[in-house]
Amino acid sequence: MIALLLGLFVAAPPRAPLAITISTARGDARVPVRTVRGGAPLVPAAPLLAALGGSVRRDGGWADVTVAREEFALLLDAPWFVFAGHAEPLAASATVSRDSIFLPLQFVVEVLPRVFAERYRYDGDAARLVEIGPQLAGAAPAEPPAPRAVADRRTAVDRPPPGGGDRLPSGLRRGHVVAVDAGHGGVDPGNPGLFFPRGTREKDVTLQVALLLRQELKARGIGVRMTRTTDTLIALGDRGRYCTQDCDLFVSLHVNSLPRRSGYTAMRGFETYFLAEARTEDAARVAKVENDAVRFEATPEDTPTGGLDFILKDLQLNEHLRESAQFAAIVQDKLGNVHAGPDRGVKQAGFMVLTTARRPAVLVEMGYSTNPDDGRFLSTPSTQRKLASAIADAVVDYLIDYERRSGTAADSGEGR
Ligand SMILES: [Zn+2]
């Protein structure tokens, strides 16, 4: 699995055609292929899915694609998709440009023929995806889109009415525990907080929001385990250990910043990371800055040095990636309701702090201290409270959805 993943990460994309042809019982349709600035080739989702008789819609940080009544959820701007309950890496990300969704060409030429081996074959020489098999003879009519089923993926339905002693008013089972990690601390100040009040650094703001998040989670009936409650340093490698057997989620709070360069104070907004190897230059930069905290720790020889190998081997990869990505998308949705800055999306990066968590884990970069508006937003108690409340709402929504998907919504009292 590791070798496969690494192969996908480093594989050079084959030379892309200018267009592909989709050949089905309904005829041939040509779909243009777009390659931007040396990036991976992309195809516009709407004409592609029209040709395939499927559907595509955006759902927060996801592109929900239905082909032959099967649902694929592609993360936007992170090269992963979820199919049949498993997260799988892609060589490139689905993305949105001018309100149109674009899918990686790899999804058409590799994923579809693999998933639907009986139905689709891709002819690389002719740049043609051919519909084969029984569907062809039937001249299958276009399938109606199935937005309802897709939407259910993250919307709790049919959950029992609240009121039982083991249920919270939200419908959530009692007994959930979330680990809240205030980034940095002690001799590691995090970023200097250019537009924070004098003397306030990243470590102070992460702790302030973390303490508010604890209150907000408790108010929602969720147990909280803090990695720190004071200005102290917890080794990066130890933070994840706060979330093991009896813990449901790990949330690490951070504040972004940019190095001094032309126009650097203009960048603002919030993003949520789940664990994977960094895929973009910017994600790699953020990961490097956050991982740099290792240098403050007393015993550097104890810290892992194996890079991606180390990160992957210690995880139940699919399960945690899928759940972490789901949770990250919900966090972004909720933050979008309260944050004044732009939604910079769900991202992935190789954060050491997340690698030792044994449960789904995300790292929230709540905004940029190098932007005056974000700096004020992040250091003002009333808006800190809004951030904490939004993240707590995301936790509840995620856990309700998790309970529904895992079947614990109905059989009350079952722990996991
Ligand atoms: Zn940080």
Description:
The protein is α/β, with parallel strands linked by helices and 416 residues long. It folds into two domains: 2-153, Copper Amine Oxidase, Chain A, domain 1, CATH 3.30.457.10; 177-406, Aminopeptidase. It has 13 helices and 18 strands. It has helices spanning 2-10, 45-52, 105-115, 134-137, 147-151, 202-219, 236-239, 281-291, 308-313, 317-338, 352-355, 372-379, 381-406; strands at 19-24, 27-32, 42-44, 55-59, 62-67, 70-75, 80-83, 86-89, 95-97, 100-104, 120-123, 128-131, 177-182, 223-226, 249-256, 270-275, 343-349, 361-368. The strands form four sheets. The protein has a six-stranded mixed β-sheet with strand order 14-13-15-18-16-17, with helices on both faces. Strands 4-5-6-7-8 form a five-stranded antiparallel β-sheet, sandwiched between helices. A four-stranded mixed β-sheet has the order 2-1-12-11. Strand 9 and strand 10 form a beta hairpin. Helix 10 (317-338) packs across helix 13. The longest helix is centred in the C-terminal third of the chain and has 26 residues, at 381-406. 46% of the residues are buried. The chain binds zinc ion. Zinc ion binds next to loops.
